[in-house]
Known about the structure:
Blueprint: H1 3-21, E1 37-39, E2 42-44, E3 50-53, H2 66-76, H3 88-98, E4 107-111, H4 114-129, E5 133-137, H5 146-149, E6 165-168, H6 178-195, E7 200-206, H7 223-231, E8 235-239, E9 263-266, E10 277-281, H8 283-292, H9 303-318, H10 321-340, E11 346-352, E12 355-362, E13 368-369, H11 371-383, E14 386-387, E15 389-391, E16 397-400, H12 408-427
Parallel strand pairs: 3-14, 5-6, 5-7, 7-8, 8-9
Antiparallel strand pairs: 1-2, 2-3, 4-10, 9-10, 11-12, 12-13, 12-16, 15-16
Helix pairs in contact: 2-9, 3-9, 4-8, 6-7, 10-12, 11-12
Amino acid sequence: xxxxxxxxxxxxxxxxxxxxxxPAYRLFYDEPVHLVRGEGVWLYDPAGRRYLDAYNNVASVGxxxxxxxxxxxxxxxxxxxxxxxxxxxxxxLAERLxxxxxxxxxxVMFTCTGSEANDLALRIARTCTGGTGFIATETAYHGVxxxxxxxxxxxxxxxxxxxxxxxxxxxxxxxxxxxAVFARHVAAAFDDMKKxxxxxxxxxxxxxxxxxxxxxxxxxxxxxxxxxxxxxxALFIADEVQPGFGRCGQMWGFARHGIVPDLVTMGKPMxxxxxxxxxxxxxxxxxxxxARSRYFNTFGGNPVSAAxxxxxxxxxxxxxxxxxxxxxxxxxxxxxxxxxxxxxxIAEIRGAGLFIGVELRHGGMxxxxxxxxxxxxxNLLREDGVLISASGREANxxxxxxxxxxxxxxxDLLVEKLEKALQAIVAG
Length: 428
Ligand SMILES: Cc1ncc(COP(=O)(O)O)c(C=O)c1O
């Protein structure tokens, strides 16, 4: 297909999308990418051009991993029902998942999406505490349901006047004080809630603070806030939808902080693209919740989804992907840090495992956010066949979050192309 014909085809698809799906959807990049195939860390457009995927954390064990595809196809050919019938696969999945958690976490419930998992976690927290007040960070994202919109300020919607939600600044690196400062913000927000007659129910945090700009250091900074949450009579909800399943070099993001949350929500990478998600919890909480509520989710925990998630766990173990995330992540971070010396636009590089944020500012961390330059780099990389994105309150943090099968050769290619994009920015 000629370049002109390609442009016409892309414009046709965009117009058709608008006509059929309406105006609420957004596309990535100035020139949206049309993808038709994926394999490992590579994505392909209709012309056969390939893109290095350094962004997609859903196809976490690699796009279209044959073992996951086979598990889905095999189970779909035999039976797909729901959790009101006895079936072993969902129990095998629960058993396997629970071995990855600390002993205090004893049950797991299944949903289809991360939003549903967080919504269920809120319900459990409300039931068990008798409270309605929740805290999230200032640029958090926790999902699409009405209950989660206030807890997802990155959507840009103002809190309603009588909202029971309080937003706190995210834990920005303040050295050893990071955890204490964050705990103080959370304590003040609980006090504010109580003054308004709102009983605390919980704190929900993404343990790598993805949409707050990827905040990882120093590991352990979530320890002080756990006590603060419990002292307020509330529960700690660890949203592992982004950091979970090995991305940060450990199976769960909260493990980097040496804490045991009350509720853990998971999703995205759990089925490698198949919609499966869930909530893991302390049994005493579900004892209380189960005594007062019933839960049924038509598709949550169905045998096909459970088979997909089991296959993902198999691949994570057999291919050593948690270790790879740690190893390749350290390698990539080292190469990015080496770039920092030559490009003053790079103010800070943060991350854990294969979740890395590169913050761009004019004149170091106290300088103005380089929002335009971040957007330009993301688009230049896309033109050059590498997919990343940007996050943070000012959208000035390059977000690098590839499938966990990313290897050093892919890291080399990413850094080479990033340097080319940075040179283009310097050249003006
Ligand atoms: C941290 C976090 N929590 C929850 C969600 C919601 O997950 P889902 O889109 O599967 O509903 C997302 C989605 O981006 C997320 O990033």
